[in-house]
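Lab notebook, bench 4. The sequencing result for the construct came back, and we need a structural model before the next group meeting so we can plan mutations. Quick request posted to the team channel:

Model the 3D structure of this chain.
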Amino acid sequence: MTTVQSPVLEFPAMLHGSVGAVRRQVGAEGRRWAREYLKTGGFTQPRRMLQVPSGELLEMISAAVFDVIPRPRWRIHMFVDVFMHLNEGVPEEEYPRARETFESFCLSTPWGALYHAVSPPPPQSAERMARRLAALLRFWDVLQGPRYAYREPDTHHTLDDLIAYIYGMTLEAWCPGGAASVREHLALTVERMARATREDCMQAVLRVIPNVVRMNTDLKYREELNDLDFLRERLDALRPEDFESLSSAYRFAVNGPLCAWDRALGRQ
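Done. Here's the predicted structure in token form:
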């Protein structure tokens, strides 16, 4: 009987090390990518890659792991610094296209798909988030190996746990009742997001808002923020690009407008 070997998972070596080492390496790679884009109009894999063994811990957000004695580890969250160096290295008028090209490049890799799913840069529209989450699904099997440190300190999530923690509300908003597994629920959500109309997005956002309100204990005008007529009126009043930016029903995208509406109610 032939044993099918799992594909080897490799991440950029620049993301492994101490905080200072990772910051320097990410800065150097970001500047290299900026130069490469100006020369070729595209991006290539980092020069050094490291294998990520099964069970290895990936820190997805700062301070998710506490070390009495700091030690080198995978600091995926520090990939965000790349965007600063791209911004500095690419002319302003060219930067939007460079960002689009860079995101497409990242989504073709397991490490880039993971980053854009866990820490999605704005805009977080239904169309864009569908692409990001579809990329994550393509690498789902190989990303099962590591463990993930996120917002619960010293909790080592599986990939399923991580995505359920971040996107559970969103998945339920798009596919109430869902599916048996996180992966299947995510796949159904991606399918619906990718072909969603504005009204589909509106319904998903309205379904996710009560959960976001419940989680945000700082909100004062909770009754109004749970009133469907009030919410639809506020959502309809948004500029098209502002509605688009939260149309995925990603809870962190929805939270910002809710806070703004809560403050506005307090000024009345």
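Residues 198-267 form one domain.
Will bring this to the meeting.
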